[in-house]
Amino acid sequence: MSDIQFNSRLSDEIKVSPEAVEQLIAITENEDDVNGVRIFVSGGGCGGMSYGMTLVEQPGKYDCVLENKGLNLYVDAVALGFLEGVEIDYKTEGVNKSFVFKNVFAKSGGSGTCGACGGAAGGGCA
Predict the structure, then answer these.
(1) Residue 27 burial by Cβ neighbours in a 10 Å radius (0-12, 13-18, 19+)
(2) Mean pLDDT score of the chain, rounded to an integer?
(3) Of 5, 6, 3, which Cα lies nearest the Cα of 17?
(4) Which domains, and CATH codes, for the chain?
(5) CA distance 4 to 68
């Protein structure tokens, strides 16, 4: 996975594969009034953090902006703390195509298991 040069410190914290950049550009070019893609973090607890992306018209007031080849990626300051070390890739396996967030526990040192019950993340605690 190669590094892509962005206009902020995000290039040290978030890596985006060339395949993912290509797919995101294709998606944003086909949408009216879309200025870029927001990378977000939500959740917590036994299921762990959820990572995702959504199309946006404009950046928010506290967003860091990553730009490359006409693609704008926006990450707010809070989410940035949870995204350090993350790699975003695009995978094709048969008919399945998806964006994949890799190394999501890099900053937190998480293990993918529940700290309270020891169960697998996403399984919930009793």
Answers:
(1) middle
(2) 76
(3) 3
(4) 10-102 (2.60.300.12)
(5) 7
